[in-house]
Amino acid sequence: MRANPWFRRIIFALVNKTAKKIPAEALREVEIQDMVAEGKCIVRHENLVIFVTQVAPGDVVDLRVTRSKKNFLEAVPTHFHKYSDLRVEPFCQHFGTCGGCKWQHLGYDTQTKYKQQQVEDTLQRIGKVEIPEVLPIAHSPALQYYRNKLEFTFSFMGWLTEEQIKSGADFDRRALGFHTPGRFDKIIDVEHCWLQPEPSNAIRLAIRNYARENELRFGNIIKQTGLLRNLIIRTAESTGELMVILQCYRQHQAIEPLLDYVYEKFPEITSLNYVLNDKGNETFHDLEVVCYKGKPYIEEEMEGLRFRVGPKSFYQTNSAGAYNLYKIARDFAQLSGNELVYDLYTGAGTIANFVARQARHVVGVEYVEQAVQDARVNSEINGVTNTEFYAGDMKDVLSADFIQQHGRPDVVITDPPRAGMHVDVVQRLLEMRAPRIVYVSCNPATQARDLELLDEAYKVVKVQPVDMFPHTHHVENVVLLELR
Predict the structure, then answer these.
(1) What positions constitute the catalytic site (predicted)?
(2) Half-sphere exposure of residue 285: CA atoms within 13 angstroms, side-chain side
(3) Which residues 6+ apart lie within 8 Å of 401 measured at CB?
(4) Closest by alpha carbon to 117, among 137, 139, 141?
(5) Is 373 annotated among the ligand-binding residues?
(6) Is 83 annotated as a binding residue?
(7) What pLDDT is recorded for position 1?
(8) Has 316 been labeled as part of a binding site?
(9) Residue 465: closest CA among 482, 483, 447
(10) What pLDDT digit, counting tens, does each position of 116-137 carry?
């Protein structure tokens, strides 16, 4: 659907009204000053802040305002007068068009410097609690091909870059790749992705080419029509096992020949699955996954422990980085073998089983029932007998009766989703008064908010940022809190 021209004029008028507060010359030859949260850069003009994307600190650029708010503007560069000394040459041909790896234009030391700065600034600005000196950020063991899971989307009308359009050449628009930034309905066809090790690229291209040659219908994301919808590839570097999940909008006689072709061409696939999904989104946690060939899971290994990963299982997407993260969390927990540990938001019980050998007993709580089942299986296959797991909404499960039944924990490990902990969960932690809390977070902003609430009874003793996602602005952070 094309935007109403009158609506567009109103939007542009609102943007221009705020932008007119800045003289035109102030938007020309602007030096980008610093990097802030979510990977954006910043320019300050008097009392107005301008957030800029697609740039690096030290760039000198002309800007075009794209969005206007009361106290800030958002802008993009239209011309570069000088490039920052912090820049490096991006290694991916899709950089700037694909929605991932947006920091490829920065050297890795620069990336980690700004991630460290982001953690420090966020904890002080939002948390407003006293923090010790932040430990140096732990680097990712690998900078390329570090992900064990990728999701690709089929589209019958793939996105063309400006260069492709200007070339005048004919392109096969049937695409299998990633979303372009900010557009759920625009898919860029990916030739080579540097995020996941082979045979990820080979499998994706083989499926795309087979579908093109055999006239299989690529999905229409807006109308939710077609046949082919989504492709998920999961790899396990530690064991070499490999899972492929094909999502289709509906049942069709062409599905099984496609799966047979993939299985024959890539005998290293140990789990081949498909899902029929005609919902409005690509999530399939409530749908049946059909294991077409091989096992219905793959396994990862860590310190002799094997973790079973099914199609619906959560597992940290950087396996080697996750090992670093879990070791830091375990070190912060200071376990001697006598402790009762609560592992909140336990997922598939990875952390719970990882620390169980150093604890007396571990109680895991998780919202997703399937994940709790995975956690129990992971304990069983590893012979871990001192864990138990419960499913349900954290704020409801973690009741006074629950704590009375299982005991007051010596250590709480909490690894919530990006939204952080519900205020009722924070309140329960304050009531429990566990001597130590290890807070693992993928979002320092919500972590800082929770730390401010916990400050009533806890002090922050250690802070350790961890880089799990090179070439992105995302950063994990581990905080140790001790009862005052």
Answers:
(1) 442, 442 (nucleophile)
(2) 8
(3) none
(4) 137
(5) no
(6) no
(7) 39
(8) yes
(9) 447
(10) 999 999 999 999 999 999 999 9
